[in-house]
Amino acid sequence: xxxVGSRARTTIELGDSLERVLGGKSARALESALGLxxxxxxxxxxxxxxxxxxxxxxxxxxxxxxHVTVLARVDRVSGRKYxxxxxxxxxxxxxxxxxxxxHRSLTCAFFNQQWxxxxxxxxxxxxxxxxxxxxxGKLQLTHPEYQLLESDGDLSRLEEFAGALLxxxxxxxxxxxxxxxxxxxxxxxxxxxLDDPMPEELRERLGVDRLDGALRRIHRPDGxxxxxxxxKRLKWDExxxxxxxxxxxxxxxxxxPAPACPPRPGGxxxxxxxxxxxxxxxxxxxxxxxxxxxxxxxxxxxxLLQGEVGSGKTVVALRAMLQVIDxxxxxxxxxxxxxxxxxxxxxxxxxxxxxxxxxxxxxxxxATKVVLLTGSMSTAARRxxxxxxxxxxxxxxxxxxxxxxxxVSFADLGMVVVDEQxxxxxEQRDALRARAGEDASPHVLVMTATPIPRTVAxxxxxxxxxxxxxxxxxxxxxxxxxxxxxxxxxxxxERAWQRIREEVAAGHQAYVVCPRIGDSAGEEDSGxxxxxxxxxxxxxxxxxxxxxMLESGPLAGLRVDVLHGRLSPDGKDAVMRxxxxxxxxxxxxxxxxxxxxxxxxxTVMVIMDAERFGVSQLxxxxxxxxxxxxPGLCLLVTDMPEGTASRDRLDAVAATLDxxxxxxxxxxxxxxxxxxxAAQSGRxxxxxxxxxxRDEDVIAAARTVAQEIVGEDPYFAxxxxxxxxxxxxxxxxxxxxxxxx
Length: 741
Ligand code: ADP
Ligand code: MG
Description:
By secondary structure, this protein is an alpha/beta fold. The chain has four domains: about 1-55 and about 155-195, no CATH class; about 60-155, CATH 2.40.50.140; about 270-470, Rossmann fold (3-Layer(aba) Sandwich); about 480-655, Rossmann fold (3-Layer(aba) Sandwich). It has 23 helices and 21 strands. The strands form four sheets. Strands 11-12-10-13-14-9-15 form a seven-stranded parallel beta sheet, with helices on both faces. A six-stranded parallel beta sheet has the order 16-21-20-17-19-18, with helices on both faces. Strands 2-3-4-6-5 form a five-stranded mixed beta barrel. Helix 14 (about 425-435) links the parallel strand 13 and strand 14. Helix 7 packs across helix 23 (about 720-730), helix 8 (about 270-275) packs antiparallel against helix 10 (about 315-325) and helix 9 (about 280-295) runs parallel beside helix 10. The protein is globular and about 90 Å long. The two termini are about 30 Å apart. The structure holds adenosine-5'-diphosphate (ADP) and magnesium ion. Magnesium ion binds near residues 313 and 314.
């Protein structure tokens, strides 16, 4: 980090290693438990919340597997002996401490540590830290670490407790919150501060504190006012960093040249419209007009089209592609999986009819050709597809990411459609834009069925124009959703299988979705964890175990088949085809059926271990039923005990079909910082204070400020501090902040 020469050299800087300041042991613990290696990493490891004098932590909505720190009172203590099972586990003693927040309680279990009874007496208060597991349907902490207080609510014994608020940090097994607080204090004691990356005029205009003050106060606040002020500054930094990058991207994107594709009267699009078997909805018309105008221009379209499952996005995309073909160019359509790519190719050909059969005997006069290109086609088929794409014979190329990752050469690529954007990161978006060669970028239309809250639209998709299809074409059927608590009410699960039999008897079909494929070496460790207390989580249910169980049990006699990502592309295609034509009654599948699969005759979906899926994912999944004229039923099967956050989430999914509401919930359930963070890549993102749920105001304001700054100084020549801030908070490569799940 560069320093102003005139200032005295500070003892430590954000880039310094923690080892230098804290010594090897603490530094190693922070690195291995939390991946924190520099002073900056630690100072940016903000408290998750603060404990307040005399207030116990609300023990509600705990998440299984989560590491928690709670301030609670010991309520009851009991000890008992247990017998071991021969050959497996020796017997011993369990000490069970029930702690409470005054309303709810949580059991802490200690094995063969009877002596702890001396400390953990009823009425004592302390911080308890550990991983939440479940045992016999109840939540518990096994061998939690704890720090007891002298008297109820008296935090003063804790040396890290500076003012009225005690920071509670995201912690890990072996590194409790109070140890992190001690390290932070040690660092802050020797830290002199830094040059503020935000110019003073801007700070004044936004009404935010200096950064070093904010960093100090977030860790050691004197009161809530300190916390608020510190949060405000830290949020502004994050919001502004993201918006600056997006404003820059957009600036570059809209100034690039693109192949102009004005509509051609009497062309393929007109021919298609003339024989469309239905009336476009108002939404389809409106979005269609916006796209038509974009495509006619000399700068690339960058548009996101969101619309609920079944809202008719495909027709909108096809009409856009036809306009591009009318202008003498080609269009590519990308899908997240081979199954979907194949299905898209099929449905585009169907929609086009003889307008899509160029080169065949019965082709219409101005027909074009739709080719499918996937990573694993036979060499011959692949060669033919590549030839058609290179020669321009194919007006539309459909494929998976392979279409842009391979060195596929297009005769004249005018537009790229990306279906189901939520699987598609910004890097792919960039790779796409580079496809059309140096002199022009193709127009890009991305489509998603996941409703996008405004804040997400402004951040994750901030470089795109957003339009939405809000109404469904007429004739859709309602979907009813219910939670099936298999643990508490096994009878309900039997009833679920019976429902499938009834639907099949009535001529319909069903999906059973499992979180895992199963039966693969090294896919999951089956985990031999006989310890009673660890019995919290079994491995997720697998397609390859559930399918035979159903075939030989509750669904005996029905035609059951499986679909998952490890089948060969031909195998997948064959299964999908058999299901589509009704030769298979029940499809047991992984989330490969999540997006885009369209079999209107399927009316029931049973989702096993439903809590393993995200809210939006569940919503997508259930969109596979109720696509025909019969109503759809979706059953969410779970073992999660009542009162867990997971169970609450499933109830919420069952309670509403409002995609926007669910998208909000989905945001809520992600941990702070994960929202924009590059969690998958294992890289730390600097964004952890900003909440897409609560900080709409800051995000919107930052967007405006960022656009001003980029408008006047697109390369940050006069804003070197801000450029540095973007690099630190967003990512060295500048793209990792975008959500890629
Ligand atoms: P999405 O991709 O948005 O989930 P699709 O484009 O697959 O939805 O459309 C779902 C179904 O509705 C398709 O069979 C499609 O042909 C049909 N469809 C699309 N637009 C209309 C419309 N305006 N009126 C009637 N049916 C429509
Ligand atoms: Mg679709």
